[in-house]
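Q: I have 87 residues here and want to know how they pack in 3D. Can you give me a structure?
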Amino acid sequence: MDKFRLNNFDLLRLLAALQVVFGHAVELTDLSMEQSSLFQFIHAIPGVPLFFFISGFLISKSYEINPKIKNYAVNRILRIFPGLWFC
């Protein structure tokens, strides 16, 4: 699978994550939007399962590119740790 197609998966993963954020924001603000079309659209997308499904797929593709477990683990740590440290 080429890099351009994987970027489309990243876009879907972003949309799934945004669905979760907006879904919680609507519920936490208590805006009484249960009947609005935006509220119904936000809750129609299974954001969490979609996010984890796509993330798992992308992680497995990353492992296929570099199947040595030590190199894979080092690459994952180097990719995750800077963001974790920043937060």
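Q: Anything worth noting?
A: The CA atoms of residues 34 and 40 lie 7 Å apart. Helices lie at 3-29, 37-44, 47-65, 69-86.
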